[in-house]
Write a structure and sequence with these properties.
The chain is an alpha+beta fold and 397 residues long. The chain is 43% helix and 18% strand. The chain is globular, with a radius of gyration of 25 Å. The chain starts with a strand and ends with a helix.
Length: 397
Amino acid sequence: MIVLEFKLKGKAEQYRIIDEMIRTAQFVRNKTLRHWIDNQGIKLVDLYKQCAVMAKEFEWAGKLNSMARQASAERAIFAIQRFFANCKAKKPGKKGYPQFKKHTRSVEYKTSGWALSADKRCLTFTDGFAAGKFKLVGSRDLHFYAPDEIKRIRVVRRADGYYAQFCINVERKEELVLTGKAIGIDVGLNHFYTDSDGDTVANPRYLRKSEKALKRLQKRVSRKKKGSGNRKKAINKLGRKHLKVTRQRKDFAIKTALCVVKSNDFVAYEDLQVRNMVKNHKLAKSISDAAWSQFAQWLEYFGKVYGKTISAVAPQYTSQECSNCGNLVKKNLSTRTHICDCGTILDRDHNAAKNILIKGLKPAKIDLNTAGHAGIHACGQTDLYSMVATSTSKSTG
């Protein structure tokens, strides 16, 4: 399943109609949730039936395509299912009881309510709202995909315009090119990551670099009169700046993960619980700005696409243990150098990256100490090429 995004180019009146579509989808979602709250014990299938009831009860709700109403109801259903799953798993803390939405920014269509032009460069909405035809602006081409492969379309409102996301039911696969290299990655704040070879990638800190501009734009918003047109314009400029930072962070994570996966056959990384780490208020902003979770997600994605082996390693004691002898050398966050009695002196993150690689290779029974980091093919138990080939055949077979 892949998602292709295009910007919708239309008239101001068409954009206002899209806003009505989004508000209607929010209403359907909230109304479905209210029906579940008022009628405890009903089946989730009954919530789909409420979509038809709402269409008859509210004329403007009937303008939204029937499958779009069902997709909006699914959002409430997913929230309910997640709540029950958290309760069943006895998740600590709040279980995520479904809440009503106030600022929805998207509406989702399934296989009806829209139509593509013959050249697949224009999108037309055919439901009761009659938003009309929009030109699709983007670098990707929909000609490579059959119409029946497009399973959903989501219209998203952002600070810089409206976008259409096409969810296409195809599997992306790239040619497997083996390099014979294995690497361990330790993410951090001083450097974005340090690998087991001692190489580092600088932390871009996009939010930190944009803080001055964001503060200035936030002041302009606070100085404007509430409800005025100038305040709306100031809010839009602030939103555009935040959107730029988000896109910079995402672009960096994608390009860095792609480079790591294409350069190595085996990648081990820390499976960090970022949600718990951001509870440290002194480091929360820097941790969020680093986007470690996003980087890990793209590592896993590109690993499947390119047929490489990606291993998530528990982070416990990776910084404390010596990568050479295994002894425990306790150190706090301010101690940046690992010094062990065995004579090993390494940068703290470099030592952790080597430990991550060792832990990641343990399930595969590969011992790097027999031939060093450069000679992983010489080990007698398992060859990295055969290991990657086996994992690839399992994923594709």
